[in-house]
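All the exercises in this workshop are built on plain-text protein records. Instead of coordinates, the fold is spelled out as a row of discrete tokens. Once this layout is familiar, the rest of the handout is easier to follow. The record below serves as our worked example for the rest of this section.
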Amino acid sequence: MKIATVTAAIAFLVGNTFAFAHHGGSMYPDRENVVVLEGAIINKFLFVNPHARLLFSWTDADGMPAEWEGELSGSTELVRSGVYDNLVAPGDRVTIKGWRHYSIPRDLRVMSIVLPDGREVALP
């Protein structure tokens, strides 16, 4: 019984350490420089846990199109904040604001979306 308790305690501590490291925000360290992608076209909104994902296309000022991915909070946290799976639909043209990933090109942490009707939705 004692071994099982000690093993469970170690597993809990190690698991929490990894969860804290993952959620520490270190993947998006430059929060001073917000990326604004106007005219992004939604391809897919994956309303899942542990993190929702937004797949979209965006064409830069030089006319170069590229596929992007945005990370959001998980669906549970989004719902608690009043954001649901019908926030955007494929084909919607939106403005996406967020922070760049430190090592993955065309990946960002989405902080807000300006919808086709002009409303800006801040994301948790």
About this structure: Residues 30-122 form a domain with the OB fold (Dihydrolipoamide Acetyltransferase, E2P) fold (CATH 2.40.50.140). The mean pLDDT is 86.
